[in-house]
Specification:
β18 and β19 (about 275-280) form a beta hairpin. The protein has one helix and 20 strands. It has one helix spanning about 255, and strands spanning about 25, 30, 45-50, 60-65, 70-80, 85-95, 100-110, 120-125, 135-140, 145-150, 160-165, 175-180, 185-190, 200-210, 215-225, 230-235, 240-250, 260-265, 275-280, 290-300. By secondary structure, it is mostly beta strands.
């Protein structure tokens, strides 16, 4: 870890939202979703991205907003020109009070950088599917070296999008994975990139809906430290489907994982929506091999 003085600290709010509805009345009840309900396709697909301006601000955030009448189902983030000195702090669905959008947030590490850099947000939007639910879990405030958080979907729903964010220990703790575990559970990991005794928390976000026509794919490879400072792995969805949720999982020794900084995790483009990409940078001094896995949730 790098010794460095404290830096500026922005304010970040947090909340939990669970969307649901029930019907009631004389002789009328809402029928529960069947556990073996036939999966359906998503309609009204829209791909949105938005980049903030290049600047040397210590903290930057930007949101990609869905068109009117659409809901956000997944998203992602990319740090551009950060030069291994910018930490990903959040990639998550924003509070619906502020609209249907996906927020990306990053901070310069420690004393910062003279680079002009920016953050880009991606949103996957569509017509509202049945049973749409946003849920989150928080690993409570502690001064741990690293933390993990898991969030499963409620019964009769499936994971369609995932995100995470760090609260506290500004400019010292960053996300280093937002992934999907066996059983389609959203997971997140964050670690101290710089020395600090500050307490911090980790939030894992899951976007869930009733059974959709979806598939899960993943691929990965071992990386040799020092060969290239930044490594990328892409994964494609089957023909006829599009990437919604995109995950990144890392494997390696604890000290190695704590020196890896994700700089991109998102569906690739509007014109080629079948691919998801994950890019990770090594901090100088990373000595041991590590494994990068890119995951995609593919929806028809």
């Amino acid at each position: 870890m790098i010794h460095t003085p404290a830096s500026r600290r922005p304010l970040l709010w947090g909340t939990t939202l669970v969307l649901g509805a029930a019907l009631g009345g004389q002789g009328l009840m809402a029928a529960p979703a069947s556990a073996d309900a036939r999966p359906v396709a998503v309609s009204g697909y829209r791909y949105v991205e938005k980049a903030g301006p290049f600047s040397s601000s210590a903290s930057q955030n930007v949101s990609a907003s869905c068109p009117r009448g659409k809901v956000v189902l997944a998203g992602g983030a990319r740090i551009e020109s950060g030069g291994q000195r910018v930490l990903l702090r959040g990639s998550y669905p924003a509070h619906p009070f502020f609209g249907q959008k996906w927020t990306a947030w990053a901070q310069e590490a420690g004393s910062g950088t003279s680079n002009r850099w920016r953050i880009r947000a991606y949103a996957i939007c569509a017509d509202k599917p049945a049973g749409l639910t946003h849920v989150q879990s928080t690993a409570a405030f502690r001064s741990s070296t690293s933390r993990s958080a898991l969030r499963s979907c409620p019964a009769r729903t499936k994971l369609i999008g995932l995100g995470a964010r760090v609260l506290g220990a500004d400019s010292r703790v960053g996300l280093n994975s937002i992934g999907i575990t066996p059983g389609m559970v959203a997971s997140a990991r964050a670690a101290k990139m710089l020395r600090t005794d500050q307490r911090w928390a980790l939030v894992s976000h899951a976007v869930c809906a009733e059974p959709l026509d979806l598939a899960f794919r993943q691929t990965g490879r071992w990386m040799s430290p020092g060969s290239l400072p930044t490594k990328t792995v892409e994964k494609s969805c089957p023909r006829g489907t599009r990437v919604f949720g995109t995950g990144l999982l890392l494997n390696g020794g604890e000290s190695t994982l704590n020196r890896l900084i994700p700089v991109a995790l998102h569906p690739t483009s509007r014109t080629d929506p079948r691919h998801g990409t994950a890019t990770v940078s090594e901090l100088p001094g990373t000595l041991r091999p590590w494994y990068l896995k890119t995951q995609v949730i593919c929806v028809r």
